[in-house]
């Protein structure tokens, strides 16, 4: 019996490691349109978040992707750092998020624009319905690390969220999390 070592390793301290891994970063200059106001004091090269993932090359139904989203504890004019947010291109594809580190919110929005959040802290597991747009928001003082598992054929529909933005924004004021109505108009 031959026993092989997995080509993929995910350590919670050092992160995801594999020759198959793809990494993307979002700097403030790339993400400025996500926020209600532009922060003139925040350099455009400020790291907002990193996504590292193992994508199934076949993108076939039933195949899975594995990744981790890492959001920095940055605020933009008081607004909490967040991912762009998206629907899946294939609405039948669900997704799981597991919070490994930090604290924040998983913001969800149904196809009619109704919005709600689920609290994220280490150990919380979140099942995302394929018909719900979703975004991560870091409300804490440390990096928010969220493990993600999704169908490789799910796709990302960012245009749909741009056409119908999340209707609530999340801010920190005097250390408290505050919700304000108003999407990206």
How is the largest sheet built, in terms of strand order?
3-4-5-13-8-11
**What class, by secondary structure content?**
mainly beta
Apparent shape = globular
The main β sheet shows up as: 6 strands, antiparallel
Could you list the spans in which at least 5 consecutive residues all have pLDDT below 50? none
**Quaternary status:** single chain
Number of helices: 2
User: Whole-number radius of gyration?
Assistant: 17 Å
Considering DSSP H and I runs of 4 or more, what fraction of the residues is helical?
under 10%
Strand tally:
15
Strand content: 35-45%
Order of helices and strands: EEEHEEEEEEEEEEHEE
Structure commentary:
5% of the residues lie in helices and 44% in strands. It is globular. It has two helices and 15 strands. Strand 9 and strand 10 (115-120) form a beta hairpin. The mean pLDDT is 94. The chain has a six-stranded antiparallel β-sheet with strand order 3-4-5-13-8-11. With 185 residues, the chain is mainly beta.
Quick description:
With 185 residues, the protein is mainly beta. It is built from two helices and 15 strands.
Label this structure with key terms.
mainly beta, 185 residues, 6-stranded antiparallel sheet, 2 helices, globular, 5% helix, 3-stranded antiparallel sheet
